[in-house]
């Protein structure tokens, strides 16, 4: 396949790994911490995961412990959910790690997401396949999918396929739901005497798969840097033209981490944070009033232009919209009519009033198909248009606005140095956990806010990330989604600074991701993560 000049240069990049891993597979030991506990609902989680509960956190250190499983090893890998930069490097890390353990080890890629496991659709990955994708964006090597492994038949089919391939390990690269699935698979396999170990890898550009022991999901850094470049360009265009407001919706199915990170990188005039809207119970009308105040103040200061960031998940945090969406979900789950007029007749009086007040297009988008987890597909709802319309109703024709949606632009970008190193390291950890006979663990790296030589390779028990939540009317064990915390250093920093960005222009122009050059520009870690971990801006 033809490669661009940058891809040719980038193929030669050798990702950096923590010191313990650089020592090599034969020179490692595994330190175990105390028994872990789920984030909540320990007793219910224990009942569902009797063999995994209480497993200790793990850390690889230099040493000479003999792995339990001697090579050659066979491992399967699957990509699950939305694309995120660095997925290919996770796979390259697994491949290199396996070959380091024993050159005769084998890696199989399940095709098209989790469905590839239970249908047994896979391909073996070799040197040529891996070398073609090192340090590239995308998931196209084996593609991804959003199918869930739910039923007893599917779980059993997975066990059978892994058994037939003789897999020592199965690595699930995915977000919170996919890693919950990995925990279920690990427990199922263990309870049926399967010798396949199941390991998860934290992936999502949304940045909402994080916890004390999981500092960041991969892909967030690159995606937010891509969006920040584009936002900076738009800020400069707005300032140059002096006549438009730009409303930019940013991906993030639920949490507003992406918006917060991009706001810190670009300092737009306004950035809405869904979690704050929810905490303060701010209605759509009240949000529009806040925007109107800033638009007017800027106009009076001679700046009839501006930039406002809108998180994709905002709609579900606005109190009256949350109630409305819950009612719609309930009606649709009961097989209700997805036609706006018919549906409005079945809503409560208050929700019917809210629904009828929405533009027809938004009504239809709220009724569109749910995803496989029963969620509204927020990426299909034009929250930015809704906001523009609500503001325009108050300001009239002098208010000229453009809408943008940045999401897909960043999900398959060439990974930043941070993500290239981080994902490769995650990949290298996975076969080591298998070799040390661990199952139901997530690969993790600690000290990510520091240079790579201070990073530590870890294993985090999946059950330690779990709590019980109600899904489709049933209580289920799930990995807790991390939302923006309003008392965190990153949010506090933003809250204290944002007023000064509203009327004056304090835009920052981050420019494109730099892969070559001085470390200050090539190796920058996510700002929100650094602030939250070190308190330093
Ligand atoms: P994951 O959590 O699976 O990584 O996906 C995140 C995401 O990129 C969200 O930001 C977005 O809402 C969603 O995927 C869109 O997915 P799709 O393109 O499948 O509708």
Your description of this structure?
- It is a single chain.
- The protein folds into two domains: 27-219 and 415-479, Rossmann fold (3-Layer(aba) Sandwich); 223-409 and 487-534, Phosphofructokinase domain (Rossmann fold), CATH 3.40.50.460.
- Helix 4 crosses helix 20 and helix 9 crosses helix 10.
- The protein has 537 residues and is an alpha/beta fold.
- The two termini are 42 Å apart.
- The protein is built from 23 helices and 16 strands.
- The mean pLDDT is 95.
- Helices cover 43% and strands 17% of the residues.
- The strands form three sheets. Strands 1, 2, 3, 4, 5, 6, 7, 8, 13 and 14 form a ten-stranded mixed sheet that branches.
- The longest helix has 22 residues, at 220-241.
- The protein binds 1,6-di-O-phosphono-beta-D-fructofuranose.
Low-confidence stretches: none
Mean pLDDT across every amino acid position: 95
Structural class: alpha/beta
Helix tally equals: 23
Terminal Cα span: 42 Å
Shape: globular
Quick one: CATH class of the largest domain?
Alpha Beta
What is the assembly state of the chains in this entry?
Answer: single chain
Second-tier CATH architecture of the largest domain = 3-Layer(aba) Sandwich
Domain unit count? 2
Determine Rg (CA atoms, Å).
24 Å
* Bound small molecules, deduplicated: 1,6-di-O-phosphono-beta-D-fructofuranose
Helix content: 40-55%
CATH topology-level name of the largest domain = Rossmann fold
> What portion of the residues fall into strands of 2 or more residues?
15-25%
Could you tell me the number of beta strands? 16
Q: Characterize the main sheet.
A: 10 strands, mixed
